[in-house]
Amino acid sequence: MRRTLSIGITAIMLLLVLALPVTASDYTLGIFGNANEDETINMQDVTYTELIILEYRDKTELSDAKYDGKINMQDVTQIELVILGREKEITILDGNCEVITVEKPVERIIVEYLDNAELIRALGAKDRVVGVDFIIGKTEIQFPDLSKLPSLGAMGRPDYEAVLSLNPDLLLTFSGSTAEKKEKLPGVAVVFLGLYYPDLSNPDGSRFTDGVRKLGYILDARDEAEEYIDWRTGWIDDIKSKTEGLTEDEKPRVFIWSKPALPITKTYKTCSSVDTLTQMCNLAGGRSIAKDLPEFVQPVYQITVDPEWVIEQDPEYILVHTVRYTYGGGTMDTPSGYDVDDPAGVKELRDAIINCPELANVAAVETGDVCILSGNFRNDATGGFMGAAYMAKILHPGLFEDLNPEAIHQEYLTGYQGLDYDLNEHGVFLYLPIEIDCGIAGIPERYRE
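The structure corresponding to this sequence follows.
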C-alpha cells in the first residue's frame, strides 16, 4: 500500500514537472490552449490542463482551449488537435488582446495593406487570397498575382457588400479599429494581427512576432512562420549587438520627418516613441530629436512641430519618410517603392528640403545628410528591421562597414516573397543612395550620379 502511494505521488510530481515550460520567457503565445502560457502549444499544455482538471494546478487565462467557460477533457482534446493541426476552430487573442475565434480550414482570405499581403506570401498562402485593398491593386510589380484579384478599394472605408460577395473566411486588417468590420461582416473572422507594433527593442516579445506566429497556427503554416521569425530576429539581434553599447553622445541627432509634401510648408510632422520609424532609428543607433517632447511618450504616432524647433535642435541627419499610397485611400505626389525605377521624384523632394531657406543653417542640410526613405520600410512585413538596416549604414557607416542592407533586402524578396526582382535594376527606396561593396543601394545602379 505504501509503495503504491509512493508511486502515485511520484507520478503526480513527474506530471507537475512535465507541465512546466522548458525555458522561462516573458513572452506568451496568445492562443487558447496554451495552458502553461509559454511560447508554443505542445504536450506540456495537455499535461498542464489535465493537472488543472485534477486540481493540482490553477486555471490560467489561456487554459480554456474550447473557450466555453469550462476546463474539462474537451479542452485536452482540442489542444491535441491543435498540436496535430487538425482543429476545426482556433481561438486567439488578436493584436488588440480581443478574443477571436477562427473557423478552420481557412481557404478564402482578404488582405489589407502591405504588411498583411507580404506576410501571407512569406507563409506560402498567397493562393488562398481572394480579395485585396486598393494599395495592393495598384502595385502591380510588387504584387504581380495579388494585384489581379478583386480590389475592394480603401479598407479604411470598406464596401461591405463587396467584401461579403467574395465569401471570405478571414479578413486580415491593417488597422486596429475592428469593431465596425466585425459588426458588418457576420461569419467572417476579422483579425488584427498587431503587425503595427514591431517593438524592435524586444522583437521576441512584440505583438508583431506574436501576430506572425498566430497566423502560422491559423493557416497551418507554423514551420514557415517560425523560419521567418528566426530570420528576422537574427538580423535585428545582429544590428542591436553593434549599437546597444553606444553612448548617447555617439548616437547622432536625427529629425524623422513624416510625409512632407511639395511645396514644403512650415508645418512639419515627426514621430513619437511608439512609431516604427522611431524604433528603426533607435535600433540603427540614432537619437530622435523629438525624445524630450511631452508628446513623444504619448499614445500618438505623429507630432506636429515647426521649423524654429527643428533649427533649435540642429539635427545631424534628416530622415524623410514618404509613402506613395495611404491606408485612407490617398495618393501622394512623391513616387517611391517597388513600382518605381526613376528617382527623379524623391530627388525633387530632397532638393526642396535642401533649399528650404529656414533650414539652411541646420547641420544636416549643411553636410547634405538628408535622406528620403520609402514608406515600404515602415509598412511592410519586415516590421521595420529592413529600414533599420539601411539607417544603420547611413548613421554609422564605419560600425556597419560589412553590412549590406541591399543583400538582406534581396534575400527577403527572393526567399520570402518569391519575387523575380533585381534591386540593382529596379526600385526606389533610398535617396541619396548609399555606397556598398558592389555598387550603390537604394536606387537602380544605372541612376548613379
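The domain at 246-447 is CATH 3.40.50.1980 (Rossmann fold).
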